[in-house]
Amino acid sequence: MAETFERRLSAILSADVVGYSRLMAVDEERTVRALTVCRNDIQRLVGESRGRIVDNPGDCILAEFPSATDAVRAAQAIQTALAERNSDVPVDQRMEFRIGIHLGEVIVEGEEIYGDGVNIAARLEALAAHGGVNVSRAVKDQAARNLGLNYEDLGEKSLKNIPEPVHVYAVKPASSGADGALPEKVDGARGTVARLGWRRRTVAAIAVALVAAAAWLVSSEGDPPADISPDTAASASEPSLAVLPFANMSDDPEQEYFADGITEDLITDLSKVSALLVIARNSVFAYKGKAVKIEKVAAELGVRYILEGSVRKAGGRVRITAQLLDGTNGHHLWAERYDRELTDIFTVQDEVTKRIVTALELRLSEAEHRRLTQVPTRNIEAYDYFLRGQAYLNRYAKDSIQPARELFAGALELDPEFALAYASLAMTYVGAWAIEWSTSPDVLERATELVGKALELGGDDSRVHSLASLIYGMTRHYEQGIAEAERALELNPNDSGAYIALGSIMNHLGRSDEAVEFLAKALRLDPHARPIAFFHIGIAYQALGRDEESIIAMRRCLEAAPEMASAHLHLAVSYLRTGQEEAARAEVAEVRRLQPGFSVAEFRERIPAQATDRLDRFADDLRKLGLS
Question: Which of 24, 400, 401, 465 could disulfide-link to 487, CB 3.0 to 4.6 Å?
Fold first, then answer.
């Protein structure tokens, strides 16, 4: 007779540490100590909610509860306790957990439990955000009656080795409050600075950015920090649009770069229309690969209209579908499918842009008409090389710089007059210098040479002028930098990179109020707020004596770019000035870890600025903290 196993209905909680391998690689002993503390807290909180720890191998924890309500209550208590613990821990040392919960039948053997209930909980955990909790529909239906929580519907998900899709929800607090958020926001890209609070909100993605990285190149390949989106609202008097990443429908997943490139080109083309506010690449790519509700995305990005579509590339042909939706109700306004030769790709992009302009009843100036018909290159093979290079560059990782350079160089061999390829090649040098992968002055000289060539060939591309503005600011040619940013905005009023470049230059010139205004405009165009913008706003706030706001900004920056030594330095000084000396010294320790040979004098010399009195005071504060 076959053995009969005991079965019971249980709520299963699965948790693991985000980035555990990275933490161990940096400091094994510190990580193990921190994990032990977290496990003790979790075990206590599980017990308080009538649960038990079933297993805890490595960085994973499996717990069982008699009800879904108990499991969700424990999960929320765990994440709250860990968030409080992490508040005083440097960002790159924080031990954050993901949690998944499922209600289902399990097989019981002694103290162990097995079955799909356990497996589904583990799969839900893997989908959760940093510090987040995901639950199945069964859990949500039970716990929703008893706990004052909200649930974000993530839709049905196909989970590995689970035969049927599972409907997934992310647990949210019942209400969200301000957390000392940054107060500046712009009412429209060309509006004035208004005093507004910024909502706490978990965002889907964020870019890894550096102090001098051009905003139009910053992108994200990993998970984002939370709670950095400004409170946005679409203006009824100003048409506004977001282009969601077009789906790659090709049989070859390696063609992803091509679909991304088409999306970026459409964003660029639509941004040239002065009557239309267009959200920047970085924010829309936060939704890449996710099942989204149009109304929710429109509300988060503060836009009225959404463009979405797909790309299928096979051999020498391409199929592009596109549809324009009203973000207030999800209704279709226009849709079209294009089956063309690959050589017609720019014509298709032009047609899509013009159809949207017509659908929204916008008027184009003669100059805008002319700019919309311009193409970056006539050589489709060079264009393909360029898109591949952009895919590497958008990863913004040290090991992706060289492949990007080789691909841009390949594009230029095929088309020596491809201005944007020169600009992107220049950006590989700017980025390497900014993050200090290379500190040789030759790097900036090479970038200046390349962007000069790009300007010579591509005078009507705002991205070239935006990058030139950035480089001129870094090399202390401020008037030229301002002129290039103004030219970029003349060509493309939606160029958030130009606003960031202007904000950076205003900081260097000691004009902090103006820096805040320009950076707020950049953030309206890029609601998912990139680290570089928070970094420069933080500098401006610090210069204005608003250190509490600077702390918030720098911490937002470091959530996405934890190895940015300059942000740690500014955060240390603001902590010192607000009487938080212990926190200040922790940031100094991070600087020493990231830059063992750090010198205040060399740092002071490296920063291009005319506000010498402020920098002198900044350097004095660093010395008070033990840096020399």
Answer: 465
- Where a domain ends, among 173, 198, 229? 173
Going by the DSSP 8-state scheme, the letter that residue 302 receives in this structure is: T
If you write DSSP's letter for every residue of 54-99 in order, what string do you get? EE--TTEEEEEESSHHHHHHHHHHHHHHHHHHHTTS-GGG---EEE
Q: How far is CA 405 from CA 169, 265, 468, in A?
A: 42, 20, 18
174 in Cβ contact with 527 (< 8 Å): no
Query: Residue 218 in contact with residue 560, Cβ under 8 Å?
Result: no
Residue type, 391: A
**Phi and psi at residue 93, to the nearest 5°:** -110, 0
Question: What local confidence, expressed as pLDDT, does residue 191 receive?
Answer: 31
Burial environment of residue 55 by CB neighbours within 10 A (0 to 12, 13 to 18, 19 or more): middle
The residue ranges of the chain whose pLDDT is under 50 are: 1, 175-237
Domain endpoint, select from 173, 190, 224: 173
Q: Are 208 and 222 in contact (CB under 8 A)?
A: yes
Domain count, the chain: 2
Q: pLDDT value at position 414?
A: 92
User: What tokens were used for 413?
Assistant: 């061999």
Strands (E), 110-165: 112-114, 133-136, 149-157
Of 276, 491, 493, 490, nearest to 374 (Cα)?
491
Find the radius of gyration of the CA atoms of the chain.
25
User: Quick check: is 43 in a domain?
Assistant: yes
The closest of 190, 119, 193 to 161, measured between CA atoms, is 119
CA distance 71 to 75: 6
Q: Are 153 and 295 in contact (CB under 8 A)?
A: no
CATH number for the domain harbouring residue 58:
3.30.70.1230
Task: Report how far apart the first and last C-alpha atoms of the chain are (Å, whole number).
Answer: 78
pLDDT value of position 234: 46
Dist. CA 337–CA 309, nearest whole Å = 9
Residue 75 lies in a domain: yes
Evaluate if pTM is beyond 0.70: no
CA 304 to chain centre: 22
The domain of 94 spans 6-173
Q: What pLDDT score was predicted for residue 92?
A: 66
How far apart CA 517 and CA 339 sit, in angstroms, is 44
